[in-house]
Amino acid sequence: MEEILMRLILDSDYTEFITEAVRYFKDDEECMVYDTTDIIKGMSIATLLIGFTKKPVNLDEYEIKLRKRKKNLKVETKDFCKVFKKYIEKVEKIKLDMLKEIT
Question: Residue 77 sits in which domain range?
């Protein structure tokens, strides 16, 4: 999923995205450095799903699974959409451009 997101948004923006994703959990005592890969993957999936959906997101929160610790991090959807709005909008724009090309 990260590769798909990286291709959809520019490489420089993807670097910013990774930084934001890790920063999002920096104050969370449950989050460890070795959870970074799972966090980036979870945030990438959420960004793609929210950006590609036609309907409003009706989840209050979702969870990122941390494989190494068999634990989950909770993410509030509204807060996530505010923080990652730039990337979600880029995915939405790409979606619309792709739809224009095939119709």
Answer: 2-102
For 31, which DSSP code?
Answer: -
Distances (CA, A) of 59 to 4, 16, 39, 62, 81: 23, 25, 19, 7, 12
- Predicted TM-score (pTM) of this structure: 0.74
Q: Write out the chain's pLDDT in tens, 103 residues.
A: 567 777 777 777 888 888 888 888 777 766 776 678 888 888 888 888 888 887 766 777 777 777 777 778 888 888 888 998 998 888 888 888 878 888 7
- How many structural domains is the chain composed of? 1
CB atoms within 10 A of CB 8: 21
The span from the CA of 75 to the CA of 30, in Å, is: 13
As beta bridge partners, residue 65 has: 72
Q: Smallest Cα–Cα separation from 35: which of 79, 80, 69, 76? A: 69
